[in-house]
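Shipment paperwork, digital attachment
Item: protein structure file
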Amino acid sequence: MIGVREKVNIMDRGNQRSYLMICALLSMLLSSCSLVNEDYSSQVNSESIQRNETENVETEKVYLPGRDYELAHFSEVTKFAEVGETVRVDESYEARNPYEITICRAEVTDTFEEDLSKWEDYMLEDIDIKDNKIVGEEKIVYIDYTLKNCEDEKLEFYTSSVSLVYIEDDYIYSAEIAFSSENKGGKSAYQVVLGPGESKDIKIGYIIPENNLNNEMYINLTGPVNLGDDCCLVKLQ
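Attachment content:
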């Protein structure tokens, strides 16, 4: 027969094993719950990061002529002039005083007529130039014109108001000026001031891709080319 003490010890060992098994099961359950929580937290954080990244991405706005802003339509232009013809401009975006403009020369070339330091640096950055001559696929357009103040007050005029433009899908687009004989630097780099009745000869230059010459190109005498502006165009020969 097994003694009372031995029975108690056997029961104690049985209880101990049961206790240890319960503890092991609880530990496994807690560990499993912890992993589930970590997976869920990771998923939530990942979705939150993706959502924030999506919200922070700025969509680049593409502005289309005719929808977001209006350019002048070539088909609506009624005023044209020729090289050598004097045109009186009674009012424009740049100046309110009446003035006269005469285009004296418009020439397409690949050779610079002045020191390159006179040109805007950023316009020459990607241009292949050798011995003052463009050897790449761009062309220089020179425009010489005479400006006359027709008013009894001084005329403040920006030389870039006489601009090179090209026609595409009936819209008139302006090229960016790269040279002006009146460029003095600073905020008023292209500005000239004429006294009453005073005249001045001015020379400006543009650099354009050679294939742009496949489009119709004109010299605009009246400044901006927004819808409603009254353009006067001289055809680039």
